[in-house]
Amino acid sequence: MSKIPISIQLYTLREEAAKDFPTVLKMLSDTGYIGVEFAGLHGHSPKDIAALLTELNLVGSSAHVGLPTPENIAELADIQGTLGITRLVSGFGPDDFKDLDSVKKSADLFQTAASLCKENGLTFAFHNHDWEFNRLEDGRLIYDVVLELASDAFSELDVYWAEVGGSDPADVVAKHSSRLPLLHIKDGPAVKGKNMTAVGSGTLNIPAIIGATDTDVTKWLVVELDACDTDMVQAVKDSYSYLVGNGLASGAK
């Protein structure tokens, strides 16, 4: 049985949350999710959401935010402190990794963000898509180079996009296990442009991926589905059932 608790990236349920965020959080608690990873608060105050998390026995595992900078770090620290969150995550688009100069610039921004976060009692991770798994002209994997250059930043590895990008996610996890406090767990056909599926019903070798983690480092397995051909709420529940039911993650039920 994996001792890594299960969380969910709330971007997955963005349409439902925009209509009734508290009801979405209650559904996730009722399903058995232990944590939630924020992607905005849908018009609610941090104080109100923090109270609701306590009421529902949910934990804020992490939050996707705009890149931490000297100008916004105080506000970010205040909001996330209210929510009880210490792990902040940001990501960039494909043009920010198109060549070595772009990669160096992006890594420098991640490194600065990580330093700012550290000064404020936070940690910073970057989230990948498939383009970080392209290779530079010298053959190096962009993802590897970013981790090397942004030495104080962590990675929230999106295992699905690693596979779409042509890498074996289990190998990536094994290689960089010391830098992976968070994993985005998603599944599907692993074909760019096609929608995802509930975790456990796609092509990814989820047991091998989770089995490659260092359980002393990886603190959360975060379910995320960007888009799904089936009902999203049901896919969220099915993902929980698969991961917890097969001993791959720890849940509340």
Structure write-up:
The protein is an alpha/beta fold and 253 residues long. It has one domain (6-245): Divalent-metal-dependent TIM barrel enzymes (TIM Barrel, Alpha-Beta Barrel). Helix content is 40%, strand content 14%. An eight-stranded parallel beta barrel has the order 1-2-3-4-5-6-7-8. Helix 1 (14-31) runs parallel beside helix 2 and helix 4 (100-119) packs across helix 5 (142-149). The longest helix is centred in the middle third of the chain and has 20 residues, at 100-119. It is globular. The chain starts with 5 loop residues before the first strand and ends in an 8-residue tail after the last helix. The model has no long low-confidence stretch (mean pLDDT 97).
Strand content: 5-15%
Q: What is the CATH H-level superfamily?
A: Divalent-metal-dependent TIM barrel enzymes
Q: Rough shape?
A: globular
Helix-strand makeup class = alpha/beta
Distance between the termini: 14 Å
User: What would CATH call the class?
Assistant: Alpha Beta
**Helix amount:** 25-40%
Spans of at least 5 consecutive residues with low confidence: none
CATH topology: TIM Barrel
Number of domains: 1
Task: State the total count of DSSP E strands.
Answer: 8
Q: Number of DSSP helices?
A: 9
Q: Radius of gyration over alpha carbons?
A: 17 Å
Q: Secondary-structure element sequence?
A: EHEHEHEHEHEHHEHEH
Give me the side-by-side strand order of the main sheet. Answer: 1-2-3-4-5-6-7-8
Q: Would you identify the CATH architecture?
A: Alpha-Beta Barrel
Average pLDDT metric: 97
Largest sheet: 8 strands, parallel, barrel
